[in-house]
Design a protein that fits this description.
Ubiquitin-like (UB roll), five-stranded mixed β-sheet, DNA polymerase, domain 1
């Protein structure tokens, strides 16, 4: 075991763990940030998505040691001063979830998309969100939520 310095949600954390354990494990089990979900553990479902330097990343395939030095954002770090982001608001308003298990990863992926592409088409949304699986099949509402968030961001709401 060794000590690793992680930057998560704007704060520094000294994490004691193994270099090759997954960032997902470290976030959930060492930092108690359980909003990031374990689905498949092999890069197929997107439940474990976090932002790594702003890029949507599967934390199940990212080692703890490789995350050192990166700015990591989990679902717990999106809201600011208890104000939800436009993507979070839009998922609520569109009811873009059923069980909610995929939702943190969906919201982080959608946030990364809109920061890069402020007004994506349906096709661009589907292509970008391809790595995020919703077993409840709420895809149409997720797409509607992303369009709603894009409109809100276009009016000045901060992503
Ligand atoms: S748990 Fe990481 S992609 Fe499924
Ligand atoms: S809301 Fe259940 S998996 Fe997406």
């Amino acid at each position: 075991m060794a000590d690793f310095l992680l930057h998560v949600n704007g704060r520094e954390f000294h994490v004691r763990g193994f270099a090759d354990e997954s960032l997902l494990f470290a976030l959930r089990n060492r930092l108690n940030l359980t909003g990031t979900k374990y689905g498949c553990g092999e890069g197929q479902c997107g439940a474990c998505t976090v932002l790594l330097n702003g890029k949507a990343t599967h934390s199940c395939l990212t080692s703890l040691s490789s995350a050192v030095g990166a700015q990591i954002t989990t679902i717990e770090g999106l809201e600011r001063h208890e104000v939800l982001t436009p993507v979070q608001e839009a998922f609520l308003e569109e009811g873009a979830y059923q069980c909610g298990y995929c939702t943190p990863g969906m919201i982080l992926s959608a946030t990364a998309l809109l920061r890069e592409l402020p007004h994506p088409t349906d096709e661009q949304i589907v292509e970008h969100m391809n790595g995020n699986v919703c077993r409840c099949g709420t895809y149409p509402r997720i797409i509607a939520a992303i369009h709603r968030a894009a409109a809100a961001a276009g009016k000045g709401a901060s992503l």
